[in-house]
Specification:
By secondary structure, this protein is an alpha+beta fold. The chain contains 4 helices and 5 strands; from the N terminus they run E-H-H-E-E-H-H-E-E. The strands form 2 sheets. The protein has a 3-stranded antiparallel beta sheet with strand order 1-5-2.
């Protein structure tokens, strides 16, 4: 049994901040992982993909996230994205939060 973070995880942040999406992980999804398991002759018992929301209530939480998850926007610095962060802060102030789409998938499998 495995639960994975998919390659589309929080790409909304990249779009909002006008940052490139890291191509290293874009292939990683339920279909790709399932195919790899089937090639290895593993029987898939259950599989499902999820796109839950992640909610940021203030710009500080968003900044913390981007520093803690360096692969989201490689070489991120607040100074480099000052204009976009200012707009995002205003959006959060007006709406109370910012939602971004996460990407998760789950596979339950066993050896044949």
């Amino acid at each position: 049994m495995t639960q994975q973070v998919g390659g589309e995880d929080c790409n909304d942040l990249n779009e909002i901040l006008q940052a490139p999406i890291n191509p290293e992980y874009t292939h990683w999804n339920l279909d790709f992982a399932s195919s790899e398991l089937e090639i290895a002759e593993v029987e898939i018992l259950f599989k499902q993909e999820y796109f839950p929301k992640q909610r940021f209530f203030d710009i500080g939480a968003l900044l913390y996230y981007l520093k803690a998850i360096p692969w989201q926007i490689p070489n991120f610095s607040p100074k480099s994205y000052e204009k976009e962060l200012t707009h995002t802060h205003a959006y959060i102030q007006k709406n109370g939060y910012l939602d971004v789409r996460q990407h998760r998938f789950m596979i339950v499998a066993r050896m044949k």
